[in-house]
Amino acid sequence: MNNQNNPNSDSVPFDIEKVGAELIAKRKMVQKKQKRTRIYLRGSSLVFIAVGWQIYGLHSMAILFSPLTKVFYDTYELFFTRQLGEAILVSLQTFGFGLVVGSTIGIFLGMMLGLFKNFDALAGVYIFALYSTPMVALVPLLTIWVGFGTAAQYLITTLFVVFPMTISVYNGVKHVDKGLLEVGQSFSATRVQSWRHIVLPSAVPFIVTGLSQGVAMGMVGMFIAEISTQLSGLGSALTAQANAYHTARVLGIILIIMFMGVTFRTIMRMLERKVAPWFAQS
Amino acid sequence: MLKRTTKSTVSKISSISADEEDPIAIRIEHICKWFGDLLVLKDVSLEIAKNEFVCIVGASGSGKTTLLRMLNGLAEIDVGRILVDGTEVQGPRRDMAMVFQQFDLFPWKTIDKNISFPLDLAGMDKGEIAERVKAAITLVGLNGFESKYPNQLSGGMKQRVGLARALVVRPSVLLLDEPFGAVDAQTRETLQEELLKIWSDLRQTAVFVTHSIDEAITLADRIVVMSARPGQVNGILDVDIPRPRTVESVRRDSRYPSLREQVRALIGGQEGNHE
Questions:
Q1: pLDDT tops 90 at residue A280
Q2: Which of A2, A138, B14, B206 is deepest in the core (most CB within 10 A)?
Q3: What's the pLDDT tens digit per position in A76-132?
Q4: DSSP labels for A256-269?
Q5: Got the DSSP string for A122-176?
Q6: Residue B94 scores a pLDDT above 80
Q7: Phi and psi of A203, rounded to 5°?
Q8: CA distances from A168 to A30, A133, A192, A273, B182 (A)
Q9: Which chain A residues contact residue B115 at CB under 8 A?
Q10: 3-class secondary structure for B144-187?
């Protein structure tokens, strides 16, 4: 800033401070303008879709499509008369159970596979095979085994979460910096100490990634379970309404599911940034 | 034809065990090591006195780092044995501490937690840990950085943490594996200066691996020069430049040029000089 000491300052034929200030102000203006444009675009696309939906809905058969206002009204109505709120709670409960139990098992299995080469040799192949199998294929078999009850919903959701979690944690454990392990060894860390101080912390970002995938897969599992068991929750509410051709309500439930998905995903994104600050900064 | 000088203290094997007066801290006896079917260390023997600063210099492939890892109990000894303070090295021990080339700090631990790591492992009393960490931080000049994370620090600062993490153990033997190899030349000299200062206070036995001849002359009491493939001790040189030293005072010393030539000749070629 202070160009007193700069021997070349006399030879600069213009005022650097002034030129700089102008340039910076100009850049800020451009950025602000771009930001404003994007907000306009976002807003207008929302209005365009809402209006388009409304107009198309008004001109189509009620069985096929509904105007947005009717979707909102019918869904609102369903909340009070048909226990939609309860269905949401049941779904969240199933989802929560699957996520917690599935992640716990997944973290445990992933750690075991990553830490013990012999366990990997023993069970690794089967776990990778199951990870590669679309879980949907197992659903009919599981319902044969445990019936169409709540247990089936819990079990299916859990299974959807377990495998992505296992594989993520496994990768995390396998990617531990060898140099850091050696530091632990050099300072006489016991096996358990090196897991606690080195392996587990370096697997944290992978665990969060696994959790992210677990959330996505858990939602899929939950809806598949609810749709196939027809027992309770949003999934079965969805099929019930669809079977009765209440298209407006079906659309409303889909919007609710969409909202849930976006919410979970946002939470996971925030968690990913929060949980490993040393990752974010590098 | 090679000049082999050992410190005047040639010992008798019989007086090793638990003898307080034994002036030898480290005995390396007939070490051989193979990587696969490649012989990397061939009959390496060496004695290092207590409170002596030894630099091991050699081209890449001379097995100098492997030798240091064996000292720390990190690498297996195929043939031969190493005695430290009279007991054979059979694995990592708490009376030795290593400073690593790539710093190897825990990115998820703050600076003070990184430094206290060896003490946490040992299950030391919390008050004692805090005290020692504070002393180590002051020693390496990291005051004010306690709660920062490693990725907020420059390379030079990171290696200060690495040094503090080793010093906090208060080891009787300090091992340094090319600790200043991963920082820029300017920082390297600053760190050498700091190490000279710190070591002149602590004076514990130090084994420093480097491939920089200048660094070795600056820091060492004795320089062990190793040849490459297979690694062998080519010669040992006394650095009789008086302490206290600074990087500058060593460069200006009249003995410096001839020492440099001697080391270079022992290494055999230009490869040893990376500065």
A1: no
A2: B206
A3: 888 877 678 888 888 999 999 999 999 999 999 999 999 999 999 999 999 999 999
A4: HHHHHHHHHHHHHH
A5: IIIHHHHHHHHS-GGGGHHHHHHHH-SSHHHHHHHHHHHHHHHHHHHHHHHHHT-
A6: yes
A7: -85, -10
A8: 42, 16, 21, 17, 32
A9: none
A10: CCCCCCHHHCCHHHHHHHHHHHHHCCCCCEEEEECCCCCCCHHH
Q: Which residue has the tokens 């140099």?
A: A179
Nearest CA in chain B to A195: B121
The DSSP code for B37 is T
Nearest Cα neighbor of B158 from B134, B185, B175, B180 is B180
- Half-sphere exposure at residue A24, Cβ-oriented, CA atoms within 13 angstroms: 6
Torsion of CA A147, A148, A150, A152, to 10 degrees: 60
Is the Cα dihedral A96, A99, A105, A108 positive or negative?
negative
Q: In what order do the strands lie in the sheet with B24-35?
A: B38-49, B24-35, B79-84, B87-88
Contact A187/B at CB under 8 A: yes
Residue B41 phi, psi dihedral angles, 5° rounding: -130, 130
- Can you give the pLDDT at residue B13? 43
Residue A188 CA to residue B25 CA, distance in Å, equals 20
Cross-chain residue pair B121–A179, CB shorter than 8 Å: no
The pTM of the full predicted model, rounded to 2 decimals, is: 0.76
Chain segment A222-244, per-residue pLDDT in tens: 999 888 887 788 888 888 888 98
Closest chain B residue to A282, measured at CA: B151
Long-range contacts of B84-89 (CB under 8 A, 24+ apart): B84/B25, B84/B26, B84/B27, B84/B172, B84/B173, B85/B22, B85/B25, B85/B172, B85/B173, B86/B16, B86/B17, B86/B18, B86/B19, B86/B22
Distance from CA of A183 to the nearest CA of B (A): 7
CB B54 within 8 A of CB B206: yes
Sequence-ordered list of residues with C-beta below 8 angstroms from that of A143, at least 6 positions apart, any chain: A152, A228, A229
Beta bridge partners of B99: B176
pLDDT computed for residue A277 by the predictor: 64
Q: Beta B38-49 vs B53-58: how paired, if at all?
A: unpaired
- Which residues of chain A are within 8 Å of residue B117 when distances are taken between CB atoms? 183, 187, 197
Residues of B contacting chain A (CB within 8 angstroms): 72-74, 91-94, 97-98, 100, 102, 104, 106-109, 117-118, 120-122, 149-152, 169
Asked, as a colleague might, if the bond just before B244 is cis with ω within 30 of 0, I would say yes
- Give dist(CA A151, CA A155) in Å, integer: 6
Q: Please name the residue of chain B whose CA is at the shortest distance from the CA of residue A187.
A: B118
CB contact under 8 A, B100 and A278: no
Specify the pairing of strand B24-35 against strand B173-177: unpaired
Helices (H), chain B: 64-71, 111-122, 126-140, 155-167, 185-202, 213-219, 247-252, 256-267
Q: Which among B93, B102, B152 is the nearest to A179, CB-wise?
A: B102
From residue B172, alpha-carbon distances to A149, B25, B51, B52, B66 in Å are 67, 9, 9, 11, 20
